[in-house]
Specification:
The chain has 391 residues and is an alpha/beta fold. It has 3 domains: 145 residues, Rossmann fold (3-Layer(aba) Sandwich); 104 residues, no CATH class; 68 residues, RNA polymerase sigma factor, region 2, helix turn helix motif (Rna Polymerase Sigma Factor, Chain: A, Orthogonal Bundle). The chain is 47% helix and 15% strand. It has 17 helices and 11 strands. The structure holds nicotinamide-adenine-dinucleotide and magnesium ion. The site of magnesium ion (MG) has 4 residues, from helix 7.
Length: 391
């Protein structure tokens, strides 16, 4: 039996993970479930899956959950320390990192340092601390399997020994597909009016609110370019974004001989989740088979960096290196939160991020303490800068 810890079990990825795990009670045992504040949902999940630990990031929420779970034998932990303890527990073999934002970094790192198999959905962890994260994984023998559908697709299309270096294994480029989000065809002047509800209504995927806004600004693809650079030890210029509105091809790998391998499937995160859980085996995920006759056609177009400057900012941040991606991420988290609170118009999300990037020189920052400090400083600057842009 494989012991599973799900960091962020009440979110979109967390719920899909429990769905897949629940289909294979002979293979997987849920050891720990975690959430930030969603007590009722975590309580229901605990009753259904009977983990050994339940962790609430928020101490007040933990106290409420303790009351609800009294007499069940399920131990309730709290705070970052509780998340780290659950992720590193000896009964846990695989950790699903599905907390949203940089808040997921320390628990995911605890899993890596304990040598667990890490199923990585929390792309922000890698954006903030890519070099350190990958080095720690190598040092502790932790295997990282990508859950982001694009990176999971790339992983499936790579040769088994890709870690030797992409040149060595004959890979020329990674082609990262992007749906283009809900505003792919919206004119620039109409983008000024968009609401959080419109931004969160993704045409193909059902996801948490933060990643939905990131998809609408295309910052999600920018974060994914950075994620790909770390996961596959590649340079930013070897990662090409391809807008593909149907979201059927989840990404592609181009080889020096002209071959291009793609992974296809219905847009349902249970496919990459099942792939990473069972790898190198295959298990059923509950996802309907792909009906190519119903899909009928696949379209491709280049990304529009004029309407979606966040993608350009992400390339610039990863090229600058060091702590600049951490600044990009922190400013973006602030901008998205402000947009969702109706304090910042959609069109100025990139302006706030660009301004914050211009105020910090962090290209030399690499250590964990310094990166966390940088994350805090960038957030403060972004919040302070909000007044210059807000509606
Ligand atoms: P979500 O908002 O639906 O869920 C987030 C989860 O994290 C919840 O369980 C929440 O309780 C927990 N959480 C939030 N803040 C926390 C904190 N400070 N401390 C501890 N726990 C906290 O998000 P999601 O859509 O499931 O996305 C999760 C991650 O997976 C993100 O990094 C996202 O980019 C990535 N991802 C999601 C999808 C998707 O389809 N939803 C696809 C690819 C990648
Ligand atoms: Mg993705």
């Amino acid at each position: 039996m494989i012991g599973i810890c799900i960091l962020g079990s009440t979110g979109s990825i967390g719920v899909s993970t429990l769905d897949v795990v629940g289909r294979h009670p002979d293979r997987y045992r849920v050891v720990a479930l975690t959430a930030q504040t969603h007590v009722e949902r975590l309580h229901q999940q605990c009753l259904a899956h009977r983990p050994r630990f339940a962790v609430m990031g928020d101490p007040a929420a933990a106290e409420r959950l303790r009351g609800l779970l009294a007499g069940t034998g399920i131990e309730v932990l709290e705070g970052v320390a509780g998340l780290e303890q659950a992720a590193a527990h000896p009964d846990v073999h695989a950790v699903m990192a599905a907390i949203v934002g940089a808040a997921g970094l320390l628990p995911a790192l605890a899993a890596v340092r304990a040598g667990k198999r890490l199923l990585l959905a929390n792309k922000e962890a890698l954006v903030v601390s890519g070099r350190l994260f990958m080095e720690e994984a190598a040092r502790h023998g932790a295997q990282i399997l990508p859950i982001d559908s694009e990176h999971n697709a790339v992983f499936q299309c790579m040769p088994a020994d890709y870690a030797r270096g992409l040149e060595q294994v004959g890979v020329r480029r990674i082609l990262l597909t992007a749906s283009g989000g809900p505003f792919r065809t919206t004119a620039r002047e109409d983008l000024a009016q968009v609401t959080p509800e419109q931004a969160c209504a993704h045409p193909n995927w059902s996801m948490g609110r933060k990643i939905s806004v990131d998809s609408a600004t295309m910052m999600n693809k920018g974060l994914e370019v950075i994620e790909a650079c770390w996961l596959f030890a590649t340079r930013p210029e070897q990662v090409q974004v391809v807008v593909h509105p149907q979201s059927v091809i989840h990404s592609l790998v181009e080889y020096v001989d002209g071959s291009v391998l793609a992974q296809l499937g219905n847009p349902d995160m249970r496919t990459p989740i099942a792939h990473a859980l069972a790898w190198p085996e295959r298990i059923a995920s509950g996802v309907a088979p792909l009906d190519l006759f119903a899909v009928a056609r696949l379209d491709f177009e280049p990304p529009d960096l004029e309407r979606f400057p966040c993608l350009r900012l992400a390339y610039e941040a990863v090229t600058a290196g060091g702590g600049m991606p951490a600044v990009l991420n922190a400013a973006n988290e602030v901008a998205v939160e402000a947009f969702l609170d109706r304090r910042l118009p959609f069109m100025v999300i990139p302006s706030l991020i660009e301004e914050t990037l211009g105020r910090i020189d962090a290209a030399g920052v690499t250590g964990l303490g310094d990166l966390l400090d940088l994350d805090r400083r960038a957030r403060e600057l972004a919040w302070a800068g909000l007044g210059r842009f807000s509606s």
